[in-house]
Amino acid sequence: MNMVICPRCNEKNKYEAAYCFSCGLILSGVKKTVAMTHENGIYPTELKIDEYAVSVDLSVSESVRDIPIVAKAATMLIEYWSKPINRTNLLGNAVRIGPNQISSVYEIVEELARRLGVEVPETYIKYDPTFNAMTLGSNRDHLVIIHSALVDNFTREELMFVIGHELGHIKSNHVTYNTIAYLCALGLGGFVAAAFRPLLLAIEAWQRRAEITADRAGLLACGDPVASVQALTMFALGSRKLLDEFSLPDFLSQEQDIDRIYDVLNKAFAGLSHPYTVVRVREMLDFYFSDTARILLERLEKRYGQPNKQKIALPPKGPEAQSPNVTAITNRFCSSCGFRAGIKDQYCRVCGGEID
Q: Are residues 119 and 185 in the same domain?
């Protein structure tokens, strides 16, 4: 994987970096000169950020280019204060995984890092009964935290999606911005919020779309649309037992009720860091049924093989490659995953199973 050497400070930056993470210099037009391989800890990949990222996500760097000194100050705050505190707490109260420590989860992290083309991150499993995972630190040095409830309640494939989502934040250079937002959300004093107000204004307009980008990366990493949908559903439902009775079409129809009934109230929650779960599911399905996802999944499968032993059907090609219309569905269902089919569907658009 190519890197960019900053001509001002000689810092090595990732290929997709819009500006130097050390001095803030804009890197557009700077020659990519340093070749990185898996021997350096970063795996080469054919997957580029602009192939899967949401357009609004890609434009965030343009807002930051006008305030490079703020971006540098934010990185320094994380590097010399926030990250050492987080790492110390995790080393004392969580378990750092590796080849000889909880290798079953570490192997997932390693495999997905290879597929997405990122460095295998320092990863911890922390006791927490809530379904959550997060990536903190900076774009250069980061920590992935996985709550124990995910390992206990999610299938291996669902866990792959969640971990792939976190690695997607790393690949997409989201970590610095997300960490600043996380610190301010914790209420770490008015000084922090005031000092980084210009950056926070840019982040607020971007963060929810960045989650959609990370969901796409999680889907591409795990290669399993059914597990990806189920993982997101578990965040909303919180129950493995109730998942057997879950109706995906009915859940998707809830988004229409949000738009119709709570439009004004919805604007009041515009500052939420994550989009509604129902929106994330619909956005991910829209992406999965697109030609872009089909091409990327085929490319990743050709290079790395299927990440799961179970064969997952790739999206259909041509005019049939459309996301299901929630308002025009029938009472025909997939016998495997329960997804409601269109009028002419013979096979499930999600898992490839036969339609009853």
A: yes
